[in-house]
Amino acid sequence: MGIRTAVAGASGYAGGELLRILAGHPEFEIGALTAGSNAGTELGAHQPHLRSLAGRVLAETTPDTLAGHDVVFLALPHGQSGPLAAELGDDVLVIDCGADHRLTDPASWERFYGTPHAGSWPYGLPELPGGRDALRGAKRVAVPGCYPTAVSLALFPALAAGLAEPDVVVVAASGTSGAGRSLKPHLLGSEVMGSVSAYAVGGSHRHTPEMVQNLSAAAGEPVTVSFTPTLAPMSRGILATCTAKARTGATAAALRAAYAGAYADEPFLGLLPEGRWPATAMTLGANTVLVQVVLDEAADRVIAVAAVDNLAKGTAGGAVQCANLALGLPEELGLTTIGVSP
Ligand SMILES: NC(=O)C1=CN([C@@H]2O[C@H](COP(=O)(O)OP(=O)(O)OC[C@H]3O[C@@H](n4cnc5c(N)ncnc54)[C@H](OP(=O)(O)O)[C@@H]3O)[C@@H](O)[C@H]2O)C=CC1
Ligand SMILES: CC(=O)N[C@@H](CCC(=O)OP(=O)(O)O)C(=O)O
């Protein structure tokens, strides 16, 4: 018998991607699938691409329906996971794809989310310095936001090596699935198609403190982040362009060596050959973050560009990678680095 695994939020985008990965994983046995308003309906009505699970009926999301599993993945809206996880046993591995337990600073949480802080859990980005140690044997894991995954992995080598000033500017484009599948006025098809638009400009995006948290830890000093997200007319993918003033003495060779060293043993991080730039299409369906870095000598800035599939390594793939680590399984089990092209 496999590792009994439940997915809460199975009718959503993150839940669907979790199930796509779990269905091909050799160790997990898919147990309860739950939803909110769609409880009582069949999974196939919401996730018709998941053929082998189509007839499964979605249960209500309660501690009772999630009981009796070894692992519970939560893919629910913000604010739902704290109270629910408190009702699940300490022996159950809970992997939260939502934001509730990502931030360590309660003041930052309250400022950006406007509710009391539910407390922090081990942070699910194994590739950050020290990241794996916190996850091995963990019983609770907070999966990062999709933008912070791309940005943190794009910039930590430059900051950790002292090659970039701790004051970064990020402009990132995201596909619309990043916002989930519930109806949102700014995601009307007629307004998204054929247009790229900025939103949450001026430091208001709730992923900003998460980037600050990760990059400050990597740099060993406080880092400021100016983050501008943009919405692109595509379903999946994030392309993050991250820049920072180069530190005195930083050279192109030192920069490339820092990234090559930091990514050398990372199965899911790819530094592209010089001159090749990341594109979201290269990462679709894969648990990868693809990066390129250069020194813009005229502007004296470090430029790192990262591509990620927001639903794969940006959520569900990263979640399964963390579950593997927490359970003592091989970290790469059930996860692919092979994308889809063109
Ligand atoms: N989309 C992405 O790229 C990323 C998402 N995440 C996080 O993953 C989580 C899920 O996101 P996503 O899949 O995009 O969102 P969706 O809106 O696509 O799905 C939300 C899921 O939660 C269920 N749900 C909604 N309200 C309740 C409730 N009150 N009680 C129980 N279940 C409920 C929905 O069920 P029903 O169908 O019945 O309404 C659905 O299954 C969020 O916390 C999000 O921040 C993290 C990183 C990236
Ligand atoms: C395009 C789009 O709207 N993206 C979402 C990102 C949501 C996400 O991935 O993160 P959480 O888990 O923190 O919700 C946004 O900017 O709010």
From TrEMBL:
Cytoplasm recorded as keyword: yes
Q: What class of enzyme is it?
A: oxidoreductase
InterPro entries per record: AGPR, AGPR_AS, AGPR_dimerisation_dom, AGPR_type-1, NAD(P)-bd_dom_sf, Semialdehyde_DH_NAD-bd
This chain's protein is named N-acetyl-gamma-glutamyl-phosphate reductase
**Catalytic machinery residues:** 146
UniProt pathway annotation: Amino-acid biosynthesis; L-arginine biosynthesis; N(2)-acetyl-L-ornithine from L-glutamate: step 3/4
Record keywords, A-Z: Amino-acid biosynthesis, Arginine biosynthesis, Cytoplasm, NADP, Oxidoreductase
Give the molecular function GO annotations.
Answer: N-acetyl-gamma-glutamyl-phosphate reductase activity; NAD binding; NADP+ binding
What are the EC numbers? Answer: 1.2.1.38
Q: Where is the Semialdehyde dehydrogenase NAD-binding domain?
A: 4-136
Q: What is the reaction catalyzed?
A: N-acetyl-L-glutamate 5-semialdehyde + phosphate + NADP(+) = N-acetyl-L-glutamyl 5-phosphate + NADPH + H(+)
Q: Subcellular localization, per the record?
A: Cytoplasm
Q: Which gene does this sequence derive from?
A: argC
Q: Which domain of life is it from?
A: Bacteria
Please explain the role this protein plays, according to its UniProt record. Answer: Catalyzes the NADPH-dependent reduction of N-acetyl-5-glutamyl phosphate to yield N-acetyl-L-glutamate 5-semialdehyde.
| Species | Actinomadura syzygii
Spans through the membrane? none
UniProt family annotation: Belongs to the NAGSA dehydrogenase family. Type 1 subfamily.
Kindly list the GO CC terms recorded for this protein.
cytoplasm
Q: Name one GO biological process term.
A: L-arginine biosynthetic process
